[in-house]
Structure to design on (561 residues):
């Protein structure tokens, strides 16, 4: 909570949080707010924006605004899911790699190196081809493939603390490894993990949009932002401005996630505290 | 005949990477409630000897020969769990840089209380009360206030007191003070040494005082071991070693003290001279 308050004190933090709040609102209420059935086509295909269809209609005569609103949950929660899967799959072994001994350390390090070498869009396509096309498979695959970030961040932070002298002092006082991890290590690992989480959500958002653009994870005609973008591209001659709408939404969201990551980073550590002081002095 | 709490017998420590012997054949016995000094320059094996006794020898180094008996138990065969039982309760340690041994982001009190909660399984409230009592026992003024402070708010001398408080929290029989006063200025150093002497008297703590400074050892210990390049060059009662050093290296240490110490600049019979002058 103190982190949130510190983030809100920064202008960048406020911008990020308000944009993300709007996006979360869209994701939560979008399907309810949609004025038309996002799946129902009409005869009025590829029309310009009008009072009935604020953002016009697509090539099947479906209301674009409704499709964007109804597509929000899949797009946003997809990104969140990717980040959370990556967090669990990455950070936990990252922490354990410092404590479970050389064998586990070696194995996880090599696994992570392997994961980094895989191009995740291509790999996600391959996995969904193998396991069937579904949002769960696609997000889990991407989540696992982004997890090396969390593994490395958690491991680096834990390594740093575990070599500090106050951890040695705790060992000398007879503390067990579990206690030391809970008491000293987690506190040091959390801030960089939070930053990585916000960054991963941004990256995850782009990946989800790209996958849905390709029709992976969520199949047509179910609406997603990437899908709306894809369906508009074939008809640029009729509605050249159409791709702008989902694109700007995707850009704004990704930017806000990155901004949030920056704001969290700025509140952490000595440099962050100095910046805070400067900002509050203004 | 008092019992021996820590016995190091012909200890050898080797660095397998370079194959060099870092400690070769160090032996000493520490009786219950006794105080033993280990003197030597940097790299003479003082700290490695202590770390072996604490079971925290840095990674690639290994004990190749000899045995360390801690409270009657051979440390070579202790499991990690048995070590945990002994640390804190049997043997504690304080080192040179007290600030580094406290987590900078946690309050002093919670870190001292932490030891009590881990070691004595005390509840939060009981641990708090006892932690304050401990801070008082190491002569910190206003222990309640110190309890709520962060490490960066305290001076070096106060931090060393806090670290000592944490080290004696579980009533160990042995305390290893490895260069514990080196980073402190002389007056604070004297206060910490007084505190250690006081603890020894009050709770019967046996001390191992490691220092490169003969004066520190002379003040606290009745027995001294002089190390050089991992070997014991001289041992014996402190007074005897300091007054009649037999080994050339010890003589050098003592001489340097005489040559560079303050005594040299003090005019003898200063008081008398001044009195005469005034009269």
């Amino acid at each position: 909570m103190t982190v949130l308050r510190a983030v809100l004190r920064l202008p960048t933090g406020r911008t990020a949080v308000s944009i993300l709040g709007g996006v979360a609102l869209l994701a939560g209420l979008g399907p309810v707010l949609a004025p038309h059935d996002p799946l129902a086509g009409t005869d009025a295909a590829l029309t310009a924006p009008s009072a009935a269809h604020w953002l016009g209609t697509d090539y099947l005569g479906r209301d674009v605004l409704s499709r964007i609103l109804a597509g929000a949950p899949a797009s946003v929660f997809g990104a969140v899911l990717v980040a959370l899967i990556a967090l669990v799959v990455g950070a936990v072994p990252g922490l354990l790699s410092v404590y479970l001994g050389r064998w586990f350390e070696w194995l996880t390090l090599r696994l992570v190196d392997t994961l980094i070498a895989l191009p995740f869009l291509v790999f996600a396509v391959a996995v969904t081809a193998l396991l069937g096309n579904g949002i769960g498979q696609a997000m889990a695959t991407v989540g696992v493939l982004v997890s090396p970030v969390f593994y490395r961040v958690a491991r680096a932070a834990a390594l740093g603390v575990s070599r500090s002298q106050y951890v040695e002092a705790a060992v000398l006082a007879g503390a067990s490894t579990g206690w030391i991890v809970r008491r000293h290590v987690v506190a040091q690992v959390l801030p960089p993990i939070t930053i990585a989480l916000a960054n991963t959500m941004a990256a995850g958002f782009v990946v989800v949009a790209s996958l849905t653009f390709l029709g992976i994870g969520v199949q047509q005609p179910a609406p997603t932002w990437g899908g709306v973008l894809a369906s508009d591209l074939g008809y640029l001659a009729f509605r050249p401005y159409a791709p702008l709408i989902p694109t700007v939404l995707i850009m704004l969201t990704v930017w806000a996630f990155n901004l949030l990551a920056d704001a969290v980073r700025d509140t952490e550590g000595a440099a962050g505290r100095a910046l805070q002081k400067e900002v509050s002095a203004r | 005949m008092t019992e021996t709490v820590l016995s190091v017998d012909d200890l050898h420590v080797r660095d397998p990477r370079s194959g060099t012997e870092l400690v070769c054949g160090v032996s000493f016995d520490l009786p219950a409630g006794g105080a033993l000094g280990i003197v030597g320059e940097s790299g003479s094996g003082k700290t490695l000897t202590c770390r072996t006794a604490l079971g925290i020898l840095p990674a690639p180094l290994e004990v190749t020969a000899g045995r360390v008996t801690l409270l009657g138990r051979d440390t070579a065969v202790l499991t990690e769990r048995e070590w945990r039982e002994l640390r804190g309760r049997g043997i504690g340690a304080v080192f040179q840089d007290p600030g580094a041994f406290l987590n900078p982001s946690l309050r002093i009190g919670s870190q001292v209380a932490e030891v009590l909660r881990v070691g004595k399984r005390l509840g939060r409230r009981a641990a708090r009360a006892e932690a304050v009592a401990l801070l008082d026992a190491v002569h910190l003024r206003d222990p309640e206030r110190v309890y709520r402070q962060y490490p960066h708010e305290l001076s070096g001398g106060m931090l060393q007191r806090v670290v000592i408080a944490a080290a004696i929290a579980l009533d160990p029989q042995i305390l290893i003070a490895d260069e514990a006063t080196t980073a402190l200025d002389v007056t604070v150093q004297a206060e910490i040494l007084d505190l250690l002497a006081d603890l020894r008297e009050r709770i019967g703590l046996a001390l191992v005082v490691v220092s490169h400074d003969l004066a520190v050892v002379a003040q606290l210990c009745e027995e001294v071991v002089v190390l050089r390049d991992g070997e014991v060059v001289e041992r014996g009662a402190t007074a005897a070693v300091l007054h009649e050093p037999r080994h050339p290296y010890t003589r050098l240490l003592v001489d340097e003290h005489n040559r560079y110490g303050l005594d040299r600049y003090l005019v003898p019979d200063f008081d008398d001279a001044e009195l005469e002058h005034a009269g």
